[in-house]
Amino acid sequence: MSRADEMEGLRNDISALREARFTLIHDLRSFAGGMRKNVAEMVGGFRSAHAEMADRTRGERAAFVSTLRATVAGLRKQFADENLAVRLAWLGRRVQPGSGGRARRK
Length: 106
Fold this sequence. Notes:
The protein is about 85% helix and about 5% strand. The chain is mostly helical. The protein has one domain (about 5-105). Strands 1-2 form a two-stranded antiparallel sheet. The protein is rod-shaped, with a radius of gyration of 41 Å. The mean pLDDT is about 90.
């Protein structure tokens, strides 16, 4: 094989590798663009799911807190009434039903 043939083969190899590199770069850019689109769609789905979940749980949380407040208020009133009855019993008095907590001697 002559030097000219070797140079031509080398040039052909370089051209083929250059074309392969351009093809690879194009394919990578296309793949990255597709991934970018998929990730954007996935993030959008996460955002909408998060907004939906926040709306749903906001109502559930408000209902829970409302019920909790009512329960705690009831327990506090029950404790206060029992505490008053015990104090008055200790003093030898009792609370008249419907008297608003006013005591009367036994």
